[in-house]
Amino acid sequence: MEKIVLFEDQDFQGKSYDCKGDSADLHGYIRRCNSVKVEGGWWVLYERNNFTGYQYIVGPGEYNGYRHWMGFNDCAKGPYKLKLFDRPNFDGQSLELTENMKLVQEKWPRQEVQSCKVLEGSWVFYEHPNFCGRQYLLEKGEYRHHSEWGALKALVGSIKRIMEL
């Protein structure tokens, strides 16, 4: 069963809200979110209402403070394949990935990814190396321009597969 419990204060204190599905506005239930317990499934937390603002991806586990959901742990294995392009509309040089990349620049000459194809699995692009900074969830499909995955800039510093249970 997919479920997430959101708490107003750190260490699972204060008013809480049990959520079992999409919710475009949480202000009717809690004023802020400083800790979370994910009892099932993978969730995307958004900074603002109506699924806007920065995204934070959380999987099963407990996050006793907002700083703890800036990344997640790998849980299992499965088929994952991603193809990056250095130009919009799947043009220019490309690179195919099947594993996490802690530092994109090790295999990619520049930090910019202008378009991509998620061929298998789900992935998270991080703005900075070492899985830090703004996060963008990319599910299976084609992204002709970085704006299609919600990014204002094409900067990608690291990439991680979402490992499902």
UniProtKB/TrEMBL annotation:
Stored InterPro entries: Beta/Gamma-Crystallin, Beta/gamma_crystallin, G_crystallin-like
UniProt KW Cytoplasm keyword: no
Example of a GO biological process term: visual perception
Keywords: Eye lens protein, Repeat
Signal peptide: none
Matching SUPFAM superfamilies: gamma-Crystallin-like
Domain annotation Beta/gamma crystallin 'Greek key': ranges: 2-40, 41-86, 80-120, 121-163
A single GO molecular function term of this UniProt record: structural constituent of eye lens
Family that this chain belongs to: Belongs to the beta/gamma-crystallin family.
Protein purpose: Crystallins are the dominant structural components of the vertebrate eye lens.
Name of the protein in its database record: Crystallin, gamma S4
